[in-house]
Predict the 3D structure of the following.
Amino acid sequence: MSEDIGLPISHRQRLWLYALGGLVLLFLIAPSIIIVIMSFSDSTLLQFPPQQWSLRWYQTYFQSLEWRDATIVSVKVAIMTTSVATPLGTAAAYAINRGTLRFNGTINALLTASLIVPVILIGIGTFFLYARIGLNNTLTGLVIAHTVQALPLVVLTVLSGLRSYDMNQERVARSLGAGRVAAFWQVTMPQIRFSIVSGALFAFITSFDEVVVSLFISGGDTTTLTRRMFNALRDQIDPTIAAISTCLIVLSVVLLSVGQMFGRRN
Amino acid sequence: MSAQSAFHASAGDLNAQSLRADARRESLRLLALLSPSLFLVFAIIVMPIGWLFWLSLFDEAGVLSSANYARFFEQASYIKTFVTTFKVAFIVTGACVLLGYPLAYMLSQLPRRAASICLIFVILPFWTSVLVRTYAWLVILQRKGLINSWLIDLGVISQPLSLANNLSGVVIGMTHILLPFLVLPLYASMKTIDGDCLRAGMNLGAGPVATFRQIFFPLSLPGLASGVVIVFVLCLGFFVTPALMGGGKVIMWAMRMEQTTSLYSNWGAGAALGVVLLVVTLALLGLFQWLLGARATGVWSSR
């Protein structure tokens, strides 16, 4: 692929385009930057740029029992969701990739359904179901619901990894006497592990940032961080949320960079 | 001779049989790999939605009726909700096209390195929590927010503008959140446009404007259409931003569902709203797929 598109149009003639595109990029990124800066403000008023700097909102965040509990719940649920959704999604992607099943298209559509079905409907439906089987306000319930949300991302990521992998290698290993599991574990797995890791990262962040379903099915001891934030935002704009938001932004940046690093080595 | 061919035939038969049995065993193994995922999706998505659909067919007295659906046409508050939802969806989709098309075009024309740096600015907000971004816009747009205090300090206005807690706040917040859903598929499709076509056009004497209008723009339309459909469909079911930034005045479809079920515990009515929302969503996606034969869900793999 050529580095430049090589049209006889100079960059100068394109300045208006760069200006316009730059403004849109600014629109996309500015809110996050403003929140990060404001989280270090000393004032309870919303001033930008802040007059005085402090870490008081981070202190409030880390010292508040409510916020800390909610954060712990979210981290727990995200870790458990990742460790359930990643193997399940990888197994499903492996089976879909073979393409020999009769209802492959339907299976694919079912597994990616949670991307298409409106989340609010999933939230209400899950709440309705959980009310009958007693899973509302439980960690198990949250992990199951988040796993369904995270599955499609794992399936699609691993599937794209498998598409660029030559399945014949696994067949060769098996013809040389390796068992099914050994062939997958020793031959296929090392070559698609980067897609599996990115799938796992997607699963983690999907669960950690999930709002709508958690609003319905979490509460009490299992209130997630996002649910508590949502309720806090409904009442008033507390600068503590700027500090929490900054932590969430940093988490996204870290996970994305890890994903990028793996992607480059791939 | 005939005995020999009969032998061949039966051996072939035997072979075919064992091959078929093998294939069946293989399918069963693959199904076993799929079954946990399929079971979860069935339990959390398919079954509850089916259940809700069943509920929506009965009125409050438990009698089979279409009352839950008839209400949508009779009660003014429901009609208002639908009008608001579609109005917001159209405005947000339009804003996303106006902002997203130039950005995707610029990204597709930049050298690879510069484009991948700029893409970070699109992907990072994409992966930042919707709550965080809604909060940011609340801080920026509210009565004593950044924009108002800046404008008042500069002396442009004397009274704060009402930017949040109304329709404009919802539109700005949702446009910001949904913009990457348009830019990413559009950019991906623009990258596949063959530069030779453009060069050929210019070689034959077309100016930059004509080349863009007659060659680039038509070739970018399928990507634009898939972005538009995704954004529109996501708008219809959007909950967080209108709930937090609408100030209780902008009631959209998803909020209405939450209110009818949580606040009024009217499960039949809430379920009917959900069923119609799902049908509209699937109909729009199906229509799009049928028209373009493109994969509307392709954007997700690039996330």
